[in-house]
Amino acid sequence: MPDEKQLWIHVRETRAVTIRRPFQVVSALLADPLRYSDWAIDYFSGPVTELDDNTYRVSTVAGERRFRVDGDVRRGTFDLYLAPLDEAFSYPSPIRVLANGDGVDVLFTLAREPWLSDEEWDSSLRALENELSALRRLLEA
After folding, report:
1. Residues 98, 28: Cα–Cα separation, whole Å
2. Over residues 78-102, mean pLDDT
């Protein structure tokens, strides 16, 4: 078949946290890229700065990165895109906010890059769990 794109086969893992705050509050925070460094504490190592209307810059453990968040606050659906400063964005990391009584469950899915070792992948999952705990502490404070 002509012009078929190659499929990237990934292992994907989802982690979740329950937060005792209203859906609208949690969703609004996740929609604000300038707030990601407040809770993404294991990946973002510096403050977020705006590059243009929809793209931001941040220092990370992997170096300087561009990122953007495409989302629907009303539905609680967010897609986080990351890329080195001089490269195109790749596939998104989905973040979902699900109503749970008077609070919410936040689900964050990571895809394992093909070059990651088992140790690096396990470290990424632990970091995500730590960041989701930081998000809960931030919102429940």
Report:
1. 13
2. 93
